[in-house]
User: What shape does this take?
Amino acid sequence: MKNLVSALGRGGLKIVQEAGEMALFLLAALGQACRRPFRFRRLMQEIHFIGLKSGLIVLLTASFTGMVLALQGYYTLRKYGSEGALGSAVALSLIRELGPVLTALMVSGRAGSAITAEIGIMRITEQLDALDTMAINPLQYVVMPKLLASLISVPLLTAIFDVVGIMGGYLIGVVLLGVSSGAYFSGIVQSVVSLDINGGMVKSLVFGLTIILVACYKGYFTGRGAEGVSRATTETVVLSAILVLAWDYVLTSFFM
Amino acid sequence: MIELIDVVRTFDGQRVLDGINLTIPRGKITVIIGKSGAGKSVLLKHLVGLLKPERGRILIDGFDITQAKGRQLQECRKKFGVLFQGGALFDSLTVFENVAFPLREKTRLSAAEIAVRTRQRLAQVNLSQEMEDKFPDELSGGMKKRVALARALIEEPEILLFDEPVTGLDPPMTNTVFHLIAKTHQEIGYTGVVVSHDIPAVFQVADYVAMLHQGKIIAWGSPAEVQANPLPMVQGFIRGEVNFLEG
Amino acid sequence: MMKKANLELGVGLFVLAGLACLVYLAVHLGEMEIFGKGYRVTADFDNISGLKLGAAVEVAGVEVGRVEEIQITPGHQARLVLRLREGLKIYDDAIASIRTKGIIGDKFVKLSPGASGAAIGPGGRIRDTESAVEWEELISKYIHGKV
Assistant: This one.
């Protein structure tokens, strides 16, 4: 019993310690953003990788999410004779919750794991050390552009997700199930307020930074050899997903 | 000149460096030998400030790199070039881009000037122009080492560190790499520190040899002096005796 | 160099597409008031029964504005600040009432603009208001035979 409790304590301390280390890592990396030279081209490369290349998977996920929301929503709302509220149900679910969360999870699965593997391999093959000895700070050259790119890309991807999802819902709700087009859109216009959109965007900023921070951190401090990198990659995906969902709860409770 | 004074470093409770005292003279090549896992690479990383010792000082031309931070450390590192064990070439860049990298990132030289210097270094390590557009994963181990050497030389460093420059290479390639080290040393006149367990091939480039054993420098001198050292550990290592390697 | 141009083109397109979606969400769907057009009037109610910020204001079923603020007056009434569309004229005898769309729909403010007296200008107050109909109250009155 005593062992169990102290194991629990050890685990708790480890989590707190890692969170603190990650925060310091974030500060150190973002501090590099103010240092010259600013590498604009590196930022472009990272937006290309994190943002543009996640576009297709976000489009796919978004349209199916919007479609299934419309399908589920339609059959539930019909029982109360309020099919007219379909638009607002689909749009609010997407803008407040599903858009930011699913976009973050998709980007984490596609780009986050790849970033951990990339940085992890740079660590074990001493490429990070090589940068250091060339008097180029690896935090500035490798990590900082990725973090900035996440702050730009993930909210944009989320906006795309929301709009595409709403169109997917339109396709099923209006074209297939025969809800009136005007009711669908006016429902959205009447129920969505700026707070919903701002809240969704704040969420996506926080999620984006979180997943890419975790990915960079895990890669940067990877264990030894190929096994270390593979473990770091797994940890990235798991930890990102947990953190996104936990943040989602915390932020939702702030905004409501 | 590099001076190490009583340098101590522990990993997981084990003293990898246990009070190292060593002077590495300017403009010469000093070879550090010792069996695998003796801490040679760790020692090398301390020289350039990638690792910090728990105790002791490392003076680079009188400047203590163990206490340096931020800008000072970066200034000090400008004196160094490092040839890492696996080459540490950037995977996403071509051979040309890898060698040009330090110039592109840190200087304001024109693209033409950078190209001239890069080609000059590539020629110096006997790499032809066709190799320029290849990526590191298309190269053999020896090729990678040569590209990495060209990159380490591009800024004409005062001090060049070699971490196991010939490990995993076949004998002809080993000789080629040692020949290149000797040749570039003659041309540029850097202070060289070579970490290797390749006995006796490594003696051909050495001006001085130091042997690291159980965290201490147990022998130091010219290659001939070290080869004549009476200590059983030194003799055992040089002759490659089995019981020594296992003990 | 070709590669570099492609990279920049791709990133540029991505950022444009993302911004377009963001603007569509914010301006079209969220009805973000970029310049705060229209004018504001207030109206005090005994009970607004869960009306939300941003709820619609309608005249003859046409949306003409939004609820911009909800306050509580010193006399414990609910004070709504309504932002109404430019050019909409309402008069002294205008009536604002809280209504519900359908049985479980959203609450909104129904406005009858009136026809006589002076026009209510920016910052003015609508004096005649009808509070929300509380179904529970109606039902209990009916049960206890007070209707």
Q: What stands out?
A: Chain C has two domains: 1-32, 39-140.
